[in-house]
Description:
The chain is α+β, with helices and mostly antiparallel strands. It has helices at about 35-50, 70-80, 150-165, 190-200, 270-290, 310-320, and strands at about 5, 15, 20-25, 60-65, 90-95, 105-110, 115-120, 130, 135-140, 175-180, 205-210, 220-230, 235-240, 245-250, 255, 295-300, 330, 340-350.
Amino acid sequence: MVTRITGSTTVSQASVFGSIAYFGEVSASEQSSTSAQTEEILKKYETLFAENGLAKENTINAFVILSPHATPGDFFNVWNQWLSDENMPAVTVIRAGLTGTKFISMALYVACTSEIERIKLQGGYDGRLVKYNGMVYFSGQSRREGMKTLTEQTKAVMSSYDEMLSMYNLKKENIINGNIYVQDINMQDEFENVWINWTFAGHKPAGTMVEGKPLNKDDLLELNLTFADSPSVLDLLRIKPGANCCRFVKYHNIAYFTGHVCSEPGADDLYKQTKSVFQRFDAVFDEFGLQKENILTAGAYLKNIGNAPQFEKAWDEWVNGENPPTRLICGTRLLSDDFFLELAITVAYE
């Protein structure tokens, strides 16, 4: 059963399921600096944790969006003081557009128990590997040393993952989800040519690919992967697999959806495209017995963040107001200029 930490009437602050609290974006009021906004966001999290019996030390995964005007060093200075090194989660940080005067937006996954295994990645690899409740979360990975093309960097990142999977006794076949953030979406083919050959046929993950820029402009790719911590590949059910991804992947009573875009030619604004994407989800829900009220999280990537009110209007009309999911919104270029929205969700099922 999904429980909610309430936020607004159409967006929850967090969805709790399977001993994890999935928080949506938390942002700050208008502040003059990245540091001030980061401090305010983390204080909000501390209040939410205290009110709901959670602990910041049990944070297992963090997705952070910095606006083009944010100062990464200021964020990390505050973040690294907030959590000790031994309690650091898997972290992925990108640049993308945010609404209003936001410098930063942050979504955390927080374990409801302390039975967490954290591994500081060795051998020059960045960040953490965190295991909890059958899941393995990696920090986003980039590689640029002496490599100037996306093809070269993608091969290097894939090689890094191969080494880490072998080092920590994980199976590539158990990949659940991949979030792919690139400096220039026009180079998507360079990534996909490597990705298709690296992932196994019949074991493609769900995923999203957008122009969410890595912090260092020389990093052409930030790749964030999630795996099942299971000895058997049969624990994962992959629905409608394609050459590079599945429509969604089922594991541990959660369906992880690939980002969906509008397939309706006449949808010429964000509101219409959002309605069309929701219709696609409704059809899949009907086909596979999923329920709208069990949506846990939603990540919306908008071509133009200034048009967010159009997305929110369609969202308010579609979402289950008694059981709304969490949500994160940012502005990025998408796989085609014809797309105004890419929307990825996770859904609990019995």
